[in-house]
C-alpha cells in the first residue's frame, strides 16, 4: 500500500486545511515542500501543469484540490468522518462556501498594505515583487476576482457574527456538533488571518470563533516525515495507478472515456491539464497522462469547480 504524500508549503491556507484533515484522521504521511511561487518542476511533472497548493500523491495517483483530497482521505480511513452520515450535504455545502467566499474575503484582508508589510518584513523586497507578480498571474483568466479591500472590510463583521451565532447555539464543539469537513474549510482562512497582528483581531475579537478555531487547530497535523520532490516523482514512476472506480456516470456533455481532454479549474489557477479521460463520476474526474519524468500517472480532479474540454 502506498504512502500518503502531501506536496505543500508552510504558509498556504489550503495546505493547512489538508494538514489539519490528516491530523483529524490521525494519519501518517510524507511531506514534500514545494516553492510558493512558480516554477514548481517536480509538482508539475506529476500534475501536468496544475500548480495550486496542496496536491496529494498516493503512488502514481495524483489528487488535486482539497475538496477531492478530503474524499480520498475519507476512503483511506473512514472514521472519524469528514462527511458525517446524515450531514453530507450540509457539511460539503458549507465547506464549498468557506473555500470560496470566506477565503476570498480573507485574501483581500491579508493582502492589505499593512498586513503585507508585516508578513514579508523579514524577506528581501525583490521576493515580494516576485510573489505579487506570481499571484497576479494565478488569479488571471478565471472567474474569481480580487474582492476590493473596502468591501471585504464592510462585509467581514457579518460573516463573523453569523459564525459566532452558530457556534454559540450549536450543542457540540463544532459547526455541526461533531467535527467535519465544514470546520476545516472554515478554519483555514481564519488561520491565514491569524498570521499577522494586523489581521489577527479580525478573528480574535469574536470569542466563540477564537475558541472554536483553537479546537480545530488542536487536531494537529498527524505524523509526518520529509521526502524530496525528486523522490516523489521517482516513486510515481515506479508505481502503478490504482484500479479505477466502478461508479461512473454518463457525462452530461457527452464526454467519453478514452477521449483526449483538458481539465482546468474555473476560479483561479486555470492552467489546463491534458490527457486521456479515464473516469467521469459524480464527484471525480480522472485523467491519464504520460510524463517524461513521472511516467504514467492518473490525475484526479473534482467535478465541481473544474471544466472539461475536448482536445
UniProtKB/TrEMBL annotation:
<protein>
    <submittedName>
        <fullName>Glutathione S-transferase family protein</fullName>
    </submittedName>
</protein>
<dbReference type="Pfam" id="PF13410">
    <property type="entry name" value="GST_C_2"/>
</dbReference>
<dbReference type="InterPro" id="IPR036282">
    <property type="entry name" value="Glutathione-S-Trfase_C_sf"/>
</dbReference>
<dbReference type="InterPro" id="IPR004045">
    <property type="entry name" value="Glutathione_S-Trfase_N"/>
</dbReference>
<dbReference type="Pfam" id="PF13417">
    <property type="entry name" value="GST_N_3"/>
</dbReference>
<dbReference type="InterPro" id="IPR036249">
    <property type="entry name" value="Thioredoxin-like_sf"/>
</dbReference>
<feature type="domain" description="GST N-terminal">
    <location>
        <begin position="2"/>
        <end position="81"/>
    </location>
</feature>
Amino acid at each position: 500500500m502506498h504512502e500518503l504524500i502531501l506536496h505543500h508549503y508552510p504558509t498556504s491556507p489550503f495546505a493547512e486545511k489538508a494538514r489539519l484533515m490528516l491530523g483529524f484522521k490521525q494519519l501518517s504521511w510524507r511531506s514534500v515542500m514545494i516553492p510558493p511561487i512558480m516554477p514548481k518542476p517536480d509538482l508539475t511533472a506529476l500534475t501536468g501543469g496544475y500548480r495550486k497548493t496542496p496536491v496529494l500523491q498516493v503512488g502514481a495517483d495524483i489528487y488535486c484540490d482539497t475538496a477531492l483530497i478530503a474524499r480520498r482521505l475519507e476512503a483511506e480511513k473512514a472514521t472519524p468522518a469528514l462527511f458525517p452520515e446524515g450531514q453530507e450535504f450540509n457539511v460539503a455545502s458549507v465547506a464549498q462556501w468557506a473555500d470560496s467566499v470566506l477565503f476570498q474575503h480573507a485574501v483581500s484582508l491579508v493582502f492589505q498594505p499593512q498586513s503585507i508589510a508585516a508578513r514579508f518584513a523579514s524577506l528581501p523586497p525583490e521576493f515580494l515583487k516576485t510573489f505579487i507578480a506570481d499571484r497576479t498571474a494565478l488569479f488571471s483568466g478565471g472567474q474569481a476576482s480580487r474582492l476590493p479591500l473596502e468591501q471585504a472590510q464592510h462585509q467581514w463583521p457579518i460573516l463573523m457574527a453569523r459564525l459566532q451565532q452558530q457556534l454559540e447555539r450549536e450543542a457540540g464543539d463544532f459547526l455541526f456538533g461533531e467535527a467535519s469537513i465544514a470546520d476545516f474549510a472554515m478554519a483555514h482562512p481564519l488561520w491565514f488571518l491569524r498570521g499577522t497582528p494586523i489581521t489577527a483581531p479580525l478573528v480574535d475579537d469574536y470569542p466563540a470563533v477564537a475558541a472554536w478555531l483553537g479546537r480545530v487547530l488542536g487536531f494537529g497535523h498527524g505524523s509526518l516525515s520529509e521526502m524530496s520532490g525528486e523522490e516523489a516523482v521517482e516513486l510515481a514512476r515506479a508505481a502503478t495507478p490504482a484500479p479505477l472506480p466502478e461508479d461512473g456516470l454518463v457525462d452530461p456533455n457527452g464526454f467519453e472515456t478514452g477521449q483526449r481532454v483538458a481539465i482546468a479549474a474555473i476560479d483561479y489557477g486555470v492552467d489546463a491539464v491534458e490527457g486521456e479521460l479515464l473516469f467521469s463520476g459524480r464527484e471525480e474526474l480522472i485523467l491519464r497522462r504520460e510524463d517524461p519524468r513521472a511516467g504514467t500517472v492518473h490525475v484526479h480532479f473534482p467535478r465541481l469547480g473544474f471544466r472539461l474540454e475536448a482536445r
